[in-house]
Amino acid sequence: MSKRTAFVVAGGDVDAEDLALIDPERDWVVAADGGALTLLDAGIIPHLVVGDFDTVGEHFAAQLAARGIPIRKLPAAKAETDTHYAAREALRQNPDEVIILGALGGSRFDHTLANLGLLEWLDEQGVQGILYHRSNRIRLVSGPGEAVLAESKFSFVSLIPVTAAAEGITTVGMLYPLRGETLLRGMTRGISNEIVGREGKIIIEKGKCLLVESRD
Amino acid sequence: MSKRTAFVVAGGDVDAEDLALIDPERDWVVAADGGALTLLDAGIIPHLVVGDFDTVGEHFAAQLAARGIPIRKLPAAKAETDTHYAAREALRQNPDEVIILGALGGSRFDHTLANLGLLEWLDEQGVQGILYHRSNRIRLVSGPGEAVLAESKFSFVSLIPVTAAAEGITTVGMLYPLRGETLLRGMTRGISNEIVGREGKIIIEKGKCLLVESRD
């Protein structure tokens, strides 16, 4: 049985290749504010659009409503971002995974960091979050746990600790093997590993890491 | 007395406005790998270039040497990134602050995250690190401590916890005031505050936050 995927499309940069991940027949899609423009430009009708519409304007909100697309207007002054709110809505669909597009590459890096934080928040809700952007696929790996790295377009694999330390890290099928080792936040040791076999694996005993698969 | 500033120029995206921060007469400048090209294109001669030269090539390394620019060739397989190595070299100059350019905006987001981590590493070494990129200025604020927000081109101020919690956060001169409050990593509450007076201030009692000043 295939995974039930909910997509969150935020207002940052989205590539055609990112959008091609969406199967409009099968996946549930929520847009956060400017992300709605990206989707409609690509001919994808979101199931819901949330936002304060500060970016796209009231006029656009009215257009969405006229097309029968459900919108939820949020106040500009609120305790979380539009994208966070959209991720909450995605969770209500009980998906196996939430894929976030448009999370990186906008002009404001605070939004990028907030979106990365959502991977940890989703993990705490018991759901796998994945963030795609052009040359990068980012997940959170939480110990005790593991992540499988299938053959893909991404050459590099990097581990970036989110907690002060990420302990008991073992890699399988990687160029620079780790064997039950500790990575410390702020150090750059986990950067630029590479898969050597058909499939790699990362095992982590304790702590949390961002797992970034990337290419030049 | 003005601050002694050491610049690290990494291989990511660098704007002319970012480069204008460098005073070649006064500041010490180290380039990490491809960052050397950025500097030379702008007519700035770095004091040192470090890297495995995987990006810019051996030929370029030879050119630098011919121009009398000190280079330190690092192995490709090493326990830290070129930029981290460059930041170590910057610290040897005993600067008051280390400003990192070209830390964001490259194609590989693992490098971006590693560069952000260097702000915490620098803080642990007792030196203020600042990362500039186009519409963003990013610092780490560590408790107990505070950060002053002078009037600037940046409209938005966001706090993103690096530790699981950042406690006792108080803001002065901000649109959405915080009064001794706790921010949790993964939540997006600290995003998009704004300075309302001539100067703002962030006070933090315990934990660490990234402080991002940004504009649209």
TrEMBL record, chains A, B:
List each copy of the Thiamin pyrophosphokinase thiamin-binding domain by range. 145-210
Entry-linked Pfam families: TPK_B1_binding (PF04265), TPK_catalytic (PF04263)
Molecular function (GO) terms for this protein are: ATP binding; kinase activity; thiamine binding; thiamine diphosphokinase activity
> Carries keyword Cell membrane?
no
Identify the enzyme class.
transferase
Q: Which GO terms describe its biological process?
A: thiamine diphosphate biosynthetic process; thiamine metabolic process
Write the record's keywords in alphabetical order, separated by commas.
Answer: ATP-binding, Kinase, Nucleotide-binding, Transferase
Q: What is this enzyme's EC? A: 2.7.6.2
The UniProt entry, under PANTHER family, shows:
THIAMINE PYROPHOSPHOKINASE (PTHR41299)
| Stored NCBIfam families | thi_PPkinase
Kindly provide the name given to this protein in its UniProt entry. Thiamine diphosphokinase
**Species of the source:** Lihuaxuella thermophila
